[in-house]
Structure prediction request, 314 residues.
Amino acid sequence: MGGKTEISWTDFTWNPLRGCSRVSAGCANCYAATIAARFSYKGAPYQGLAFRSSHGAEWTGIVSLVESALDLPLDWRKPRRIFVNSMSDLFHERVTDDWIDTIFAVMWACGRHTFQVLTKRPERMRDYCDKLLRHDDRAGFFVDALERHGLGAHVADPISHSQDEPLPNVHLGVSVEDQMTADARIPLLLQTPAAVRFVSYEPALGPVAFGTINGRTSRVHDSGRMDVLRGLAVYPTTHPEYPEQGYPIQPLDWLIIGGESGPHARPCDLAWIRSAVAQCRAAGVPVFVKQDSGPRAGQQGRIPDDLWIKECPP
Prediction:
């Protein structure tokens, strides 16, 4: 359900949800599916959510709420960084709005912690956070969500924030594995109201040019390209003398880089890591190099010391 973790860029995990489904090539060797399938026998936590097949671990596509895990961060008194749903995706299509409301309410009620939410479904995240930001009485909304799940008495340390700003202790991110998924997901992340936006480039399965992300640069402009580390968008115009127009955007606040781990790890080219680190250095964006590809999670492997960087946002 949660606790101390070996994931090096966070302190603890919190898993109020169980279950998921694959959406892209980065999910092929999902560690969460492997763990879930191991504990999918009758009476085990992931019964009905995952299974073993001739091709390996598989999700069933069913997602469940773990009611008994909802209050865990409320009981953790020492401030910590908490990775939310390392065994699921908060914005999975099977997750109800009520569940998301309650999880956000718990994060609001725990102002001492920093919560890190990572998704491969950024469109729903953007739409949900847009709606949340426009809510007239967010505090009342969160209290109602907590009370629906018997947690109303726990509101003792809510985060202090302006009504027209996103929760400052909730950091939102997307996972990408190559240029195609970066182009598809990062523009949606940048359209999402968030105090901190980050990208997990893991497993790195191909090079990514973060200075030329192609996609919808805003809800107004249908196409264009972005330097998401420096914070600049360029979109085409119909003006014959000025075919492109540039404007500032919010840059990414953090980049995590990692090769794939596990017995079937696909190789990561060190040139991809070096390029991504150089791009972050040039833009002044913190970068966290998590691991080389290989059988063991967290290994430095072939990564030279000058790339073995462990930076976090302030």
User: Anything to note?
Assistant: Residues 21-62 form one domain. DSSP finds seven helices and 16 strands in the chain. The longest strand covers residues 170-176. The CA atoms of residues 237 and 243 lie 5 Å apart.
